[in-house]
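Researcher: Next sequence.
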Amino acid sequence: MVKGINVRVVSLDTELEFTIQAKTTGKVLFDQIIQTIGLREIWYFGLQYTDSKGHPAWLRLDKKVKDQDIKKEGTLQFKFRFKFYPENVADEIIQEQTLRLLYLQIKGDLLGEHVYCPPEKAVLLASYATQVKYGNFDKETHEQGYLGNDNILPRSVVTEHKLSREEWEEKVSIFHAKHKNMSKEDAMMEYLKVTQDLETYGITYYDVRNKKGTPLLLGLDALGINIYPRDNKLNPQINFPWSEISRISYSGENFIVKLTNKSSEKFVVKCELPKQSKRIYDLASGNHEMYMRRRRPDTLEVQQMKSQKRDMLAIKAKEKAELMKEIAARDKAEKQRLELEAKYKEMEERVERRERELDAANEKIRLLEEQLKSISDTKNELEKQQEELKAMMVELESTKNLEAAERTRMEEEIKLKQDEIENIKNIVEEKEEESKRLQDEVNEAKLRMEQNEAELRRELELSQAQRAADFSYTNGDQHSAPSLSGASSSTDELPTREELEEEVSPPEIVVDPVEEREVEMKDDMKETLAELEESLAKQRGEETSLGKQHRENVRQGQDKYKTLREVRKGNTKRRIDNFENM
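Model: Next structure:
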């Protein structure tokens, strides 16, 4: 009995194990993986392995697995990864599964620092990744430290700046809050739209030399073949777009490119590692074929997938519109609830203030009553004193014949009594004046309280009527706008395919992937990133060489596409001469 070969395949979101036979080809294994995963956009993917020398390589589909230079282990190890990248993610990726796999791969490459990303864009990308994982930012749920267990930034970005983990998380959460109501798929797409504009995105680098023996880097990606100085992966010095390449081949340690310009010599680079020319050829020819594929009419399978994507986008657009309507209604109801609560709170404060005023008025009434009683007592005392004075006057009149001294004494007593009566009269008048003032204040307080009570009653009646109307309106909206989970998937009233064609359908022909292309970024996000970049610059410590090169590019106003357009200038013969003279 023939013994099988154990194989472990690690994809971006799962791990698979198979047992294959000695005669199993790479294509049979690849197809088995595709069938297990259920993937349809298979043309982007390949199986990567580590060869016996420890170098990464791609499995040849036309050869038997056992005949390839795979590192010998009890179980053969493979990685199922994107081998070829789209020119433009938004135009080419059709299925959500493919989008998610590309997102996971690029995210891993960026955090693993296989793709260079400047600090401010690393924060933005971390916020998109946070939106993918956690959904909308909620300050009540997402308290400080909610990203504590997540690997959110490349290590070099963190070590280059004098910021704590908490400060980095705060910057990420600020951007996270800006992505409200962005779906997981949209957040992944935005992540990839930013990363595809990075200089080292999707590029595989190889150590090569020219005829002079100068150490250089050759980079392959969806946009063409680049040549770099060995110490600068960001800025290619020479570029050959796939449109200028007619044939690719290899011979020994040489990788050979025949250009469409017949007056040009062949572009030949010398590889430094064994079998490297063949591996460069395999990747370059695959990218060239992908370039040509994009410019051919779509196959029936691709047309079907695009049609299904349009239908799905239309359904999701309707569901999203209904959801946004529901969210708007809920937000309006919440806003009105808060306004009503504020009004009720204000009314409660006014009622409390009225009660305090009422207590003060009652206190004044009590004081007034005491004052009135005091006045009454004083009047009684006054009458008593007047009676005594009258009696003394009578007595004085009847004692005319008394001695002068006695008469004088009585006159003094009468005068004192008159003074006392006068004082009591003055006190009575003052208390009557005070009583009148208190009475006026009490009357005024009563009038004000009656007015406040009437006003509060009117406001309460209006608020109750408004609340009842809002409750009826909100309930009506909620009944007419189902939640996302219960949204209808009917295609009635959906936009037609023709209406969606311009927005969601990839162009049938892409003239040139670089010629008029610019780095994609909304203006408001550009401003926010510029502010973040300025803020981070103040906290920058020791910088990496790639960081310095990127900052110099920014200072000169360069970006990925401007650089490629610049290094494509001149005919192919001149560029080959420049390569040989490097």
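Model: Residues 476-510 have pLDDT under 50 and may be disordered. The first helix runs from residue 26 to 37.
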